[in-house]
Input
Amino acid sequence: MQIEKRITLPKTISYVALLVMLTFTLMPIIFMLTASMMTSRQILRMPFNWIPEQFAYQNFIKAVQGNDQNYIFVRNISNSLIVSSSVAITTVLIASLTGYGLAKFRFRGRNFIFMSIMATMMIPFEAIMIPLYMVVMMLRIQNTYVGLILPFLVSAFGVFQMRQYLTTFPAEFLDAARVDGMGEFGIYAKIVLPNCKPVIATLSILSFRSQWDNLLWPLLVSQSDKMKTIPQYISSFAQERNTDEGAMMAAALLASIPMFILFMSLTKYFIGGSSVYESRKG
Amino acid sequence: MINKKYKGIEKKQARWGFIFVLPAMLFFSLFSFYPIINAFYTSFFDKRALSKAPPNFVGLGNYKYLFDLDRAASALSFYNSLRATLVFTLGTFIPLLILSLLFAVLISNLSSNKAKKFLQISYYCPAILSSVVAATIWMIIFDPRGLGNQWVNALLRTPGIDRRWLVDPVMQQVSTMVIYFWKYIGYFVILFITGLASIPPTIYEASTIDGATKNQVFWRITLPLLKPTVVLVSVMAMLQCLKTFSTQYMLYTNGAPRAPINVITFNIYVTGIQQQRLGRASAMSVVLFVMMLLLTLFQFKTTKSEQVEY
Output
């Protein structure tokens, strides 16, 4: 998209605008990094000095120790890792299975099933959380991993993505495998699944981070400290320590590290992942 | 196709397709369709979580309670929640839409690919942090002695004024909007960049040959061709804003007053979980669902009727 540029003044304005936005988006993150190494007094000094005077490592110790000095942070961040990874795995498995079934098999009711699954996209989680909460209470699965994971086993959007991707998958491969005597599950596991790597990557990242960010559902399901997830930990830590800004920032930083590692190593899929919404048009 | 043997294979195939789809069908029936029907059903009862007795049927009582005009003036009424949600949604999604489109155009016009990539990644960074972390960072920035006051006062040359970010009812709403905007701007910029990239360059070439100015190109070519993306992004952003919860929850639990930021989802949470009034909370859920349903249907309608041909 190369258009000849003749005017120079708007160019400088656009550079300035881009820089202002860059400052706005990055400053708070840099603030979190430096503030996590500062004492509270230094954080709230006027004017603010961006370079820490000394490394206040106590912040990180406090962040990991938690409100009751019982290192519940470790347990809570593991809970988040377990829940988010499980949701990513089940979403990929069920969505690919369903997407494959809808894309490559003809059976009665196929379109109806597809449309019903798409219709669930119109049901926001926030509108069904109260009935889901009642189900959790009825099944007595409060404070369990099952309770945290169950409502998110697969997403309609995941099914949609998988189906769209697999519709263009050449049927000759599948038929060839059938002729060779491969079973249907074998074909799915050995031919279909290995060929959807890009969708699997975007979909698992999408589901992982949506659970990593989830505060509302764990608030309903996990009341015991041991079963809380990391957003709940940060929330209660910030409540209890709201005058210890350094420790708050250290906790926030520690809680963000897994996502940052994921982002740095898989940038392509993060940024490409948001563009797949575009395919909804089609 | 009439061949008997072939028909047998087709039947077998149909069975396998059904087996593959079955787990998802069970899941969506149990965890999407059943709960939404249940929400409608429960909204007609005075259901409390802790009572063992079967709940009383109250008909439209819960809805009457929510939309009772006598209660409209009280600080934590459902009207107030509707107002808070509406203000937050409009105040967040309009700047998000306009600025993300603007910055997507600015980035797309850059000539260096490295700069493009760097800016996209940097703008996207806040989206990686969880909402809770974002709120925590900004709560410290919005401290009376924090960076928020220092920056605003430096820009406006008004030293020593406290903007009361987390205390003043209006500023509190502005703060939630700033936090949300900060978190999602990069995400929407990237959506628009993808949309811009799908417009074929030949159209631009033709228009420059015809002598169109840059302004004309943007208003007469880019914007009309980008319409599907604009509709998609605006409805998506609106739906997301209607569901906001974490930011408001974090501010409230850290001492901010509840009424100005008592959005619908937050009200559902407090009513259903803390006050254990499940019937009333279900009625609120139904209202939220209907609002979002209308928005989604609107999206379908506009995207269908306005197919753009390149």
